[in-house]
Amino acid sequence: MSLRKRIIACLDVTGGRVVKGTRFVDLFDAGDAVELAALYAAEGADEIVILDIGATHDRRPALLELISRAAAALDVPLTVGGGVRSLDDAAAFLDAGADKVSVNSGALRDPGLLDRIAARLGSQSLVISIDAARSVAGNDWSVRGVSGTLETRRDAVAWAREAVARGAGEVLLTSIDRDGTRAGYDLALTRAVSEAVRVPVIASGGAGGVEDIVAALTEGGASAALLASLLHRGMVTIPDLKAALAARGVSVRPLPSYPSPQEVAAWLG
Q: Which of 138, 164, 190, 249 is the most buried (most CB within 10 A)?
């Protein structure tokens, strides 16, 4: 029996506020990070990802106080990324309440960072975040770092394999070409990485509607779909999305079930 697919809400954060744009630019303010994280979790998001998109550029770790407040407000797993350059940075995120740490540019500069984090903190807590853009030839994808601004000349599929071999327990794969466009996920990229590794792959970048998400979770082979713009702009709700996925035969995790006031009163006696 196949594992149920996950719906993950992504919050790109700068200065404590959630922002979103297209292909990593033209950002708009979407609201308070902790409030949105709690809202999406209550609506049925299976996980929350918070990425401090300015941390690497500013040469600082993500905001620990924000992580602590978000973790306290959530009852679903929390992944945090941004500015992770050392084992100590990763450990600080987990100590602040995160369940997983997402590493991107730090691992591109020092691949051994993945080995050290996995050895000390466990592969289950380590996510390799890969931002990839299609090459000029159009038949492969190259990895970019520092919020998509640095061309590394690394092949995305090969880097995913190496990162997993070094201990990453999950891959967060973002298509820079599709990010924020609502033109659909890059299914060829998603499928290539999903087939290359034996860990869950999270598809990110380009969701425009239910059919795009279905395609990423089936044709693309992804274990989870990451959503940002669709949620921030109110174009879809998580309960409606999960219902639509289930109706199309995609196995998803059930929505949270809370007792009614009458049930609570009866339990209290």
A: 190
Taking the C-alpha atoms of residue 119 and residue 90, their distance in angstroms, rounded to an integer, is 12
124 secondary structure, DSSP code:
G
Burial level of 64, CB count in 10 A (0-12/13-18/19+)?
middle
pLDDT band for 25, please (50, 70, 90 cuts): very low
Write the secondary structure of the chain as one string of H (helix), E (strand) and C (coil): CCCCEEEEEEEEEECCEEEEEECCEEEEEEEEHHHHHHHHHHHCCCEEEEEECCCCCCCCCCCHHHHHHHHHHCCCCEEEECCCCCHHHHHHHHHCCCCEEEECHHHHHCCHHHHHHHHHHCHHHEEEEEEEEECCCCCCEEEEECCCCEEEEEEHHHHHHHHHHCCCCEEEEEECCCCCCCCCCCHHHHHHHHHHCCCCEEEECCCCCHHHHHHHHCCCCCCEEEECHHHHCCCCCHHHHHHHHHHCCCCECCCCCCCCHHHHHHHHC
pLDDT at 1: 45
- If phi > 0 it is left, if psi is from -120 to 50 it is alpha, else beta; for residue 179 that is beta
**Is the whole model's pTM more than 0.90, yes or no?**
no
Amino acid at 117: I
Report pLDDT for 248.
93
At CA 126, angle to CA 125 and CA 131, rounded to 5?
Answer: 145
